[in-house]
């Protein structure tokens, strides 16, 4: 019975939702931490505190979602934060008030649009398993 339980727990890590959330969390944490120490050398490091805190919070909450070992939580986090990132990009184009608070740069918009679209795509497409017969 123990082997069956361990085998079922290991199959969740074959799902692309876990791997993309882990990758995007590490990227956001790395950019957030590096922007505190070497902001002038990184083009993605905005000089305002809300952007730095957003990146660190995104990464920490993503790691918490990964530690939950629940695919529904991971997929929900990917889809919701994907739409939030797309909203950030659109808000800079339309000049919503939130864009003035965050002051995103062109590089930030490229990062957020890429991670946002891929997060939504992976969160929606890949369901319970990554088997071709079970997903799509």
Brief write-up:
Helices cover 74% and strands 0% of the residues. It has 136 residues and is mainly alpha-helical. It has one domain (14-125).
Low-confidence stretches: none
- In total, the number of domains comes to 1
Strand content: under 5%
- The computed structural class is mainly alpha
Describe the largest sheet: none
Output the radius of gyration. Answer: 17 Å
Number of strands: 0
What is the residue-averaged pLDDT? Answer: 82
Provide structural commentary:
This protein is mainly α and 136 residues long. It has one domain. The protein is built from six helices and no strands. It has helices at residues 2-11, 16-37, 49-67, 71-94, 97-102, 106-125.
Quick tags:
6 helices, 74% helix, mainly alpha, 136 residues
Write the layout of secondary structure elements.
Blueprint: H1 2-11, H2 16-37, H3 49-67, H4 71-94, H5 97-102, H6 106-125
Helix pairs in contact: 2-3, 2-6, 3-4, 4-6
